[in-house]
Amino acid sequence: MALTSTIYKADLQISDMVRNYYQDHTLTIACHPSETTERMMVRLLAFALHAHEALSFANKLIDEDEPDLWQKDLTGAIDVWIEVGQPVEKRIRKACGRAKQVYVYCYSGQSADIWWTQLKTGLDRIRNLTVIKLPPDQAQALGTLAQRTMHLQCTIQDGYIWIGDKDNTMHIDMETVKESDGKNHGS
Q: Does residue 20 sit within a domain?
């Protein structure tokens, strides 16, 4: 018998003072049996950081050619492609060829450092790629917020990120290890 995904519901209130984006989102998130709640919550954080009416969770676990999240324009062209974890270089290059902007959020501490050290030289010249590292202790703390039904608030202001529920709020401190040049183009 095949294992099924666990469904999480999140009411996410976003106050992004950097982008002047203030919206509430009601999200349904499938957590595949092979995925940890920590990874799922990093996906949710990535959603909050890039929130847009057209941003959605893709079916990566069903279709390996899809990202964790993406934002498409009205023609179906991919504006934003978001990966969580440590994708292989070939996948990142393919994403950069398909999307205007690509973001990778890695969060596994030392293994993420090793992964980036191995890929850095090969990806340095890709102009539409941003790679962000989340400290592993903060990713674990995010995982503790996971509930089947969540009511979360995320505030983004002056380079600071806070996310929490009615009982706990945490500061998220991410490191950008590679930043795109900010233009909308392929590699």
A: yes
Tokens of 173: 């401190």
Q: Which of 129, 83, 126 is nearest to 106 (CA)?
A: 83
Number of structural domains, the chain?
Answer: 1
pLDDT digits (tens, 9 = 90+) for 97-118: 999 999 999 998 899 999 999 9
134-170 burial, b at 16+ Cβ within 10 Å, e below that, comes to bebebbebbeebbeeebebbbbbeeeebebbeeeeee
CB 128 within 8 A of CB 102: yes
**What is the domain range of residue 50?**
6-178
Residue 175: strand pairing partners: 133
Greatest alpha-carbon span in the chain: 49
CA dist 100 and 127 (Å) reads: 10
CATH number of 63's domain: 3.10.640.10
Report d(CA 47, CA 35) in Å as an integer: 17
Q: Is residue 187 part of a domain?
A: no
Q: pLDDT, tens digit, for every residue of 35-67?
A: 999 999 999 999 999 999 999 999 765 667 899
- Percent residues over pLDDT 70 in the chain: 94
- Residue appearing with tokens 């929130």: 51
Q: pTM score, two decimals?
A: 0.93
